[in-house]
User: What shape does this take?
Amino acid sequence: MAYIIVLMLCCVTLHGVSSSKHPCARVKRFDFHQEGYTLNNHVIVNHTTATAMDCAFHCVATPDCISYNFMKSEQSNNCQLSDKTRRSAKNEDYVQRQGSIFYEHSLEGCSASPCMYDNQCVESCSADGSYTCECDEGFTGKRCQHFAGTFKVHYPTSLASNYIQTTLDAELKGFTLCLWMNTTKLTSNLFSYVISGNPDVFRLSMNYSYLNFYIWGQNIGYIDGIKKRTVPLGRTLDAIPKGYQLVIGQGPSYQSSSYNNADSFEGEISGFNIWDTFGSSSRRIVEIYRGNGAEKGNVIGWRNLKTKTHGGLEILQGSPLESQERPTDFVLEFKTKSVENYVVYANDVPSMTKFTACAWYKTTGRGNLFQYGTSSYPTGAIHAFVRGSGFQFGINDGKKHIISISDLLNDLWHHACLQWQTEGQVTVYSDGDEESTMTDYMKWTVIEAGGIFIVGQEFDGYGSDFEEWQALQGKISQVNVWSFKLDENVIKEMSQSCSLVQGDAVTWSGFVSKIYGSVSIIKPAECKVLDDVVQWNRNAECRQKFTVKNSSCTGKILALFNRWSDNSGRMWGCYYSCTITWKPGIGNNLYDNDSPFNFCKTLAHEQLIQINV
Assistant: This one.
């Protein structure tokens, strides 16, 4: 039998529990019990009792008691109180014993840390439990488990009067500090803590592309979840004393204790938290980087700084976190050719006099990538089809053209873009390269609004049936349409990985609600690096397992999603930097197919796409 024992404060005061807000009963629940077992070597008190219930009352009245053994005998019943549970004790201490029943207290109230996201727990005598969670703004639910979202503080201009200020109430002999920031200003102070006129006791500032962190002892720095440096700074201080002002967005100059406009922060800051622990695990740092902004430091908590702003700062709702799941981070897989398998765009398509339509795809056979049909152009206002001979397109029911491109059906990822404008110019890009440009094609026509946009099938008339041979079998992702011509450098950059940038006319996120047949959603999209942490870990995998034993292969080893050769699609591989060309203005590393060091690379697609954390 399980017991719940309540020792009321009004009846027994010796071991009653109370808090400043809730006079409360001491509650212990002995939900777990097991006959024929006893816990040895942890008995703190022995009693003689008539029943197991009496033994339970003794345990409730003893602060350190969290379990007990009740042993029946002809002379008297023995009640042994213990300060361990079967889980906290050694395995050999929990043994079988005839005539004994072991009872264990299930942690209740605040001792079980029930409140989520560092919200405050207080003891309670409520009917539905022995605790109450006092939820900060933005949190709801009994355990504060529902989070509505965080906020960010906008520094609109670089002014000395704009800052957040709070008092450091705890002495720090070690700490972990995290914050999010978004700025384009090259030099500014992120925060400072000045003691007796010393501006460099505790300060983080930006100097062009560098972060300067002044503190004592050892400095471990992470940026976007990646450890960037561990440096013994050679400066000693017993501790950072409490009682002084921590200022976010400002730092005093060396000549005076005042702030100046030139070094003031401009941009956005969010998630500023300080914990009193040094050297938090890399896993914990990554969790914060990928989190939802709900974490709260036990020394300085971001949620408590909302009322500490000065000057012209603006409180903006919403998360700055790039790590949150994007609605575009998925792949659609068409496992078989079937007229039953297709996806319809859920939103309206606008009228356009020019457009850029792009998609990622991976297939071994011919099939329709996407098609947009209207009542005036029933066989395709926009149409993209891949076949063994190349890329086929059509616009506004014009003549279908096939651009000869080899190896599109090699079960590798390929990126395709189709551009057109009403003056008649049409351009086809494959894997970032311009493959064909035509003029006078469907000149002075318009892409009409209000049609049907589908993925994976081709209709031969507006709303007509499908044919199986035209169905797509494979994977497709990032189908987007822009109502303007994208710059060729942007297309080149998009072909390097799934950028998750959505079109303004047709957005990839609009294809998830109307899926028909056996079409699967796969997350995440394998043609994309999830975040900097994943890229870092994939680079590490390359360094550990895919080195090339050749003295000519020099430089860093990077994991890149690139063409394996001139005619292949995109695959993940490990590349020495001597094989890579940096393209200014594009912002990506590109494999140089003309490099004399093309042997300094290793195909590792299947191994690298498994690394997603």
Observations:
- The two ends are 45 Å apart (CA to CA).
- DSSP finds five helices and 43 strands in the chain.
